[in-house]
Model the fold of this input.
Amino acid sequence: MDPVQAGSAGSEAANGNSSIEFARQAARLAVDLHCEDVRLLDVRGLSQICDFILVASGTSDRQMRSVAEDMEELAEEAGYQRFRVTGDSLDTWIVVDFVDLVVHLFEPGRRRYYDLENLWGDSTDIDFQRPRSEGHGDEPAKG
Done:
């Protein structure tokens, strides 16, 4: 993965989607792509780096890389650009930075070790459940 690609989402994407709606779409995508224990955290006022943090566990390094790529496609469709993608040498932790939203995809053991949810314990969980009208299967995304 390339370490840096310039770009910025700003408060609103080019097509008018708010950053919170983009964050919700990304969380739904993670669930759709079989990530486990997906959490979307509102860190506005707590972080000087981003507004939202998405944390999810992957089932394999291959799946996590695929989810990261699909997140980039979602961002492009929503008018956002990826700023940076980084990962450790074994792909047990992949970070995709969209400026307003930072996505952390973890191997479950690595996620327990770093425990970002505890680090951002003062944050608020954001509900990203699909409205019933979207009708994507019987199990809506949890948030």
In short: The first strand starts at residue 36 and ends at 42. The domain at 19-121 is CATH 3.30.460.10 (Beta Polymerase; domain 2). The helical segments are 19-32, 61-78, 108-114, 116-119. Confidence is low (pLDDT under 50) at residues 1-16, 137-143.
